[in-house]
Amino acid sequence: xxxxxxxxxxxxxxxxRPGNDPIFALNAEAKQRIAAGEDVINATIxxxxxxxxxxxxxxxxxxxxxxxxxxxxAGYAPIxxxxxxxxxxxxxxxxxxxxxxxxxxxxxxxxxxxxxMAMDDFLEPGQTVLTGSFYWGPYQTLADxxxxxxxxxxxxAEDGRFDxxxxxxxxxxxxxxxGRCMVILNTPCHNPTGYSLDADEWKATSDVLRKHAKTGPxxxxxxxxxxxxxxxxxxxxxxxxxxxxxxLLVLFAWSASKSFAQYGxxxxxxxxxVPDAAQRDQINNAxxxxxxxxxxxxxxxxxxxxxxxxxxxxxxxxxxxxxxxLVDMLDxxxxxxxxxxxxxxxxxxxxxxxGFFTTVFCDDPKAKAAALREMGIYVIPTRGALRVAxxxxxxxxxxxxxxxxxxxxx
Length: 410
Prior knowledge:
This protein has two domains: about 20-45 and about 315-410, Aspartate Aminotransferase, domain 1 (Alpha-Beta Complex); about 75-310, Aspartate Aminotransferase, domain 2. The strands form three sheets. Strands 2-8-7-6-5-3-4 form a seven-stranded mixed β-sheet, with helices on both faces. A three-stranded antiparallel β-sheet has the order 9-12-11. The N and C termini lie far apart (about 60 Å). The chain is α/β, with parallel strands linked by helices. The longest helix has 29 residues, at about 315-340. The chain is globular and about 60 Å long. The chain is built from 15 helices and twelve strands. Helix 4 (about 85-95) packs across helix 12 (about 300-310).
C-alpha cells in the first residue's frame, strides 16, 4: 500500500523547520575546503582549539573519565543526577556565597538542557523569555521547542556599556503583559560578543531587578557556560544575585562543556537558589519531575568523572593548572585581536577581555560573511553583527581576520 503523499504527518508548526544548525553547516563547509587543500580560516565553531588546530583537552579530565568504573558508566544515574555530582556543582559555583546552602541542583544534558528545563518550569506555554539583543542562536530554538516565545532588549547603550535602561523597560513590559518574567543573562564572556558585566553594571542591573521583583514573579537565569574564562566576573555576578535572592528566583545554567573541554560529554546542571525552604522543596520536586519527562536521566559516567575532577584535591589542582594554560593561550589571541582590531575605525565591537567569541557590528551581516568566505575566512552572521570564534583560530590568524573584516566593512 502506498502512502497518500498529500497527507501532512508533521504538525503545522514543524513543517518548515530548517535542517542543520547554521553554525554547524558553515563549520562543515569550512572543513571541506580545508580538507581540499584551501587556505581557509575557520572562526565558526564554539570549541577551543590549540594553535595547531586540534581540539584542546585537559589530560587530567580525560584520565579521570577513563578511570570511571565501566559498570558505573553503563548503569543508570539517578533521575535528578548523582547526589555527589549535584553537590559538587553547587560547591563549584557558589562556595563562599550565601546562596550555597539554599540551592538545589539537577543534572542536565549540557547547559542547553538547563536552559530548556527552566523555560518549561518557570514560564507558562506561550509566554515569552527575555534576553539581550545579541544572543546565542539556540536560545530561540530552545524556546520554540518548549512552546515559548523569545524577545530581546537592546544590549548596548550608545556609550557601549550594558543598556540597563532597555532591560528595565523590557522587564516592565513583560510583567505587565504576562504577569511574570524570565530573563536570561549570559555573563561572563557572553556568547556571541565576549562581553562581561563589570561591578558597576551589575549594580545598575541589580537596581532594575530589585524594582521589578516587587511587581510579579521575576526569574533571572544566569548562563555561566564560559565562567572559568573570567572568574572575577563570575564572582561579581554571584555576589549581585545573592543580594536579590529574597526577592526573585536565581537560576544558573552550569556546563562542563567549556569548563572542562568536554563538549560531547553533555554534562550540565540547573541550579536554583531559593531561600524559602518550602518553596525550595517544591522547585526541587518540579525540576526532578521534569528530568524524567525531558530526558529521563543523564550521562552516568560523565557525572562520575566530573565529580571526581571537582572534588579530588590533587586532581582538581591539576585540572586548574591545565585549564589555565588554555586560558592563557586564548588570552593571547584576545590581546592580539584588541591590538590589531582596536585601532581600525571600521571594526566596531563591544568590550572584549576574554572568552571564546567577539562580535563585530555591521549592516547586512549575511552579505559581509559571504564576502569573507570568498576570502577564505569563515565567521557566523548574526543579527546586526558577525561573530568571530577566537577560540577556534590561532594567534597568527588574527591579523588576516582583522584585515579581511576591514576590507569587507569598507
